[in-house]
Write a structure and sequence with these properties.
With 343 residues, the protein is α+β, with helices and mostly antiparallel strands. It has a domain of 197 residues: BirA Bifunctional Protein, domain 2 (2-Layer Sandwich). The chain has eleven helices and 13 strands.
Length: 343
């Protein structure tokens, strides 16, 4: 049964869900507007989408009346555009925008199109952004339930409880693995073999890490509370700044509640040459995976050369946030036209 048929069958329930989703979005805007953030709108159709090797953007062709053709993509994130606005001199910006990622599941925690909230602040780092996100979620909970406590999938959540856990601490706590003691490939291969994980002989360090992390750590994160997992190995730094006191780690975090990943944030990497080198590595890796070679956004690199102040930012899945607060197991339950109904 498609969603419009479900709405026709039970319109009162549909109206309730729509109003709750709208209330979440309204609270987000109220939260940031009160903190002197500017709401911005950046393009959905771009020449240069995100370069993350394991994300697949939708590809198309942009054409003008002169008959010129240009490779074009739907955004996987508005990150590049928003950082260009920081380079332009804006200091506190946010937006709620549709994002698109191909080759994802039609349901569960994924949909090919979803709403993303991103915000950036200059003269801030990932610790500031983590605290701000905790405050945002507390505000939403108060608005919806007049309480910091609510239930998600038969489990009690208390947003007054906020846990900060480094990747190193989480791996020791849940998987009994000290990643500082297995920083090279041979060492971590021994551990995954002992644990019975079967990976390809040429699997990189990150694959061995995720075999452990996804099975033994992630499902237990944020039990009954908001947990920030921070300081990822630099091989997973994405667009994050490397830590000054230990350059094997990056100032990146993810946020979880009851094993549900909600957000991914950084102290932003603002060194243009280091960013260019990372994008070149990602470009090469994408090609090795058989994916389309995407041109590097040189305008983004030029923006970084303009000396943006130290900044922090985060991408938060609004559709997943709705799942959490509305107590829905499947993302299709908070979308009016999920992909499973369209294709």
């Amino acid at each position: 049964m498609k969603n419009w048929q479900k709405i026709r069958k039970n319109p009162a329930e549909a109206v309730k869900t729509i109003k709750q989703v709208n209330q979440i979005n309204d609270t987000i805007r109220e939260f940031f507007n009160k903190r002197d953030y500017l709401e911005v709108y950046t393009p959905i159709l771009v020449a240069h989408p995100g370069m993350e090797p394991y994300l697949t953007p939708f590809e198309t062709t942009a054409k003008n009346v002169q008959g010129q053709n240009f490779p074009a993509y739907l955004i996987t994130s508005p990150e590049y555009s928003m950082k260009k606005l920081l380079a332009g001199g804006l200091s506190k910006i946010y937006q709620i925008t549709p994002c698109f990622r191909n080759e994802e599941n039609f349901g569960g925690r994924h949909n090919l199109e979803f709403l993303m909230l991103e915000w950036y602040q200059t003269n801030a780092d990932y610790k500031v952004i983590m605290a701000e996100m905790a405050n945002l979620l507390q505000n939403i909970s108060q608005k919806l339930f007049n309480s910091l406590k609510f239930t998600y999938q038969n489990k009690s959540i208390d947003l007054s409880q906020v846990e900060y856990l480094s990747i190193k601490e989480a791996m020791i706590k849940y998987a009994h693995v000290d990643i500082d003691a297995c920083r090279d490939l041979v060492q971590i291969q021994k551990i995954t073999q002992e644990k019975g994980y079967k990976l390809a002989e040429n699997a990189p360090w990150d694959d061995h890490f995720f075999a452990i992390f996804l099975n033994e750590v992630e499902p237990f994160l944020g039990e009954g509370k908001l947990t920030f997992l921070y300081d990822y190995p630099k091989s997973m730094a994405a667009l994050a700044k490397i830590k000054a006191d230990d350059d094997w780690y990056a100032e990146r975090f993810e946020a979880y509640i009851n094993g549900l990943e909600l957000a991914n944030g950084f102290s932003e990497l603002l060194n243009a040459e280091e960013q260019l080198a990372r994008l070149e590595e990602e470009q090469e890796f994408r090609v090795s995976l058989g994916k389309t070679k995407i041109a590097i956004d040189q305008d983004f690199i030029e923006a970084l050369r303009s000396e943006i102040p130290p900044s922090g930012g985060v991408a938060l899945g609004v559709s997943r946030l709705a799942m959490l607060f509305l107590d829905k197991k499947d993302i299709n339950e908070v979308l009016l036209f999920p992909c499973k109904d369209l294709f």
